[in-house]
Specification:
alpha+beta, L-rhamnose mutarotase, Rham/fucose_mutarotase, three-stranded antiparallel sheet
């Protein structure tokens, strides 16, 4: 699953600092929701995520009300231009091309 998010201006260093160490309970919640890997790249304010997950929709359902994810999302809402309130049917970025 590929995702795109955008930082609020001036929040680049803070975002990277917050992600230097992910809370153990959030790591456990992500893995419990089927996440095998999550990588994030930054280009200016733009963030590009690649998530290896069994079922992205199910992952979002599990994490929506998870006690480890709620404070994390509150923290992310301070840094991201558009907060993820888990209300929509996010399906990630559409694949345009790949090298087979």
């Amino acid at each position: 699953m590929a995702l795109h998010t955008r930082l609020k201006p001036g929040k680049e260093a803070e975002y990277e600092s917050v992600h230097a160490v992910i809370p153990p309970d959030l790591d456990e919640a992500l893995r419990g929701a089927g996440v095998r890997s999550w990588r994030i790249w930054r280009d200016g304010l733009d963030l590009f995520h690649v998530v290896e997950v069994e079922d992205y929709a199910k992952m979002r359902e599990v994490l929506r009300e998870h006690p480890a994810n709620i404070p994390w999302q509150a923290r992310m809402s301070e840094l991201l231009d558009v907060e993820d309130d888990y209300s929509g049917g996010d399906s990630g970025l559409g694949l345009v091309w790949e090298l087979p």
